[in-house]
Amino acid sequence: MIQSGLYQEALLAHHKDPIGFELNINVSHSAQGFNAACGDEIEVALEINNAGKQQQIKYITFHGDSCAICRASASMLCQNLSGYSIEKVSCLAQEIVQSLQGDVEFNREHSEMFAPLLAVKKFPVRKQCAILPWTTLLSAISSIDE
Amino acid sequence: MPTVSPWKQDFPIFSYHAHPNLCYLDSAATCLTPKHVADAMFHYQCFSHANSHKGLYQLSANVTEIVEQARDKVANFLGAESANNIVFNSGTTEALNLIAYSFVEPILMSDCSGRAKNIVISAVEHHANLLPWQRLAKQYDVELRIAPIDDFGDIDLAMLATLLDENTAVLAFTHCSNVIGKFTPVGDICRLAKSKNIPTIIDGAQAVAHGPVNVKNIGCDFYVFSAHKLYGPTGCGILYCRSELLEHMRPYQLGGGMINSVDFTDSDYISGPLKLEPGSHNVASIVGLVEAIDYLNDISWSDISLYMNKLNHYLSQSLIELNYFKPIISAVEPSQTTGGKSPSLISFELDSVHCHDVASLLDSENIAVRAGHHCAQPLHKSLGINASIRVSLGLYNGYEDIDRLITSLHGIHQLMATK
Question: What is the ipTM of this complex?
Fold first, then answer.
């Protein structure tokens, strides 16, 4: 029986039945991310709601050829960020990246929200897999003001 | 054939206080080190070390002799004309960059023909045998021509012949692909190139551990490899170069030990291999390479080939039986072999499971494989994939390792498959 602390049930559930994978949305902004070391490719696409004072992310979708960690991370991203303002999503994505890199601790709210990702911190060679969707999201957000 | 390799005990990494349960299947990346090699390096460094080729005292003279005897040993190993054809460097990558700078770039710089030059390589090359040529091609507006592979993963010789012409500056190709594992008919290709007066460079990194090499019989102009792919240490590489070409090569790096005379405005470089070996030699690594060659000679190439062929055959047969096994080259030649030689490694995917997950989960079982593009990204792209799992065997592997791999792959597929 294969055992690994990296692939917990919750993470595997996201991998096998990912949220936001290949959704048909009205894409307004998108970005592609690559992990040169291993060949992971992902595209994160956003549908922005411009109504009201603040721009909000209405839907997020992702697609591409990537490993279970990257895919599960992207799934959690899509699950938790739809409906938030661009500003908040940007801050959150930066925090997640820094947390996965080990520079800062997850805050309590987010550590519950992204609990399955915490295990990745113990596997340095796979951190980049988990981080890729978030840096790609930040690239997509950065294109909003361009 | 025994379940456990008869040579496994020669490799201290498997000892009880190190990694007794390690199943190492990444010998194409680097071979593990036999005790003989590690001991020889330790002994040299502790009891014989000095700077070679420079000191006037006996200790230094002894080290100079060690290096020059090593040059002779490597010349014999490669079937080279003499020790003067052998240049020591840090590895295959440096050797290829050296040839690009010292031999090929001057050809491109001095070309006054007015005709567009070209450089030819194959589609299976490691980045080390692609990037130096890509840079030269861009720098001198030269066409970089890529010989494709056929359905079986072999370099398409008919297509290659059409790419070679009177404007080809050099043909650089691998003796054995680090992704597909098939051996290239190097002699046939060199004869073809020679008939058109095209210099040939062979990347032998993946071939040297799998059988004897004879550069005279092959007929190549350059042959390069790294000691660590041959059960030796990292930090030592070999460049074989035909004498006539060596004399015309410009020095790659400049420093001590390579000049007849120097003043503040000009320098007169010595001839021979030392011209391309500035600074202090990595003698411990050179000693390690010599010991590795002796180690393999003691076992004998016939025993090595017989054992590795059987093991590679068992690996491929075991993998084929998995119904979710997807080899990156699915077409199978009628004989399954090239010149009686099984491929030296196998690259594949598992249906519905990403390569990185396979490698991570195998690691959790103490099984080391490579996952990714193996520094051959264009080849993977041309095969329509981003990455693959690569299993490559060494002398320390036995049937037990392959059985462990297969059992684990089965468990991984059950755990991870998305359909």
Answer: 0.85
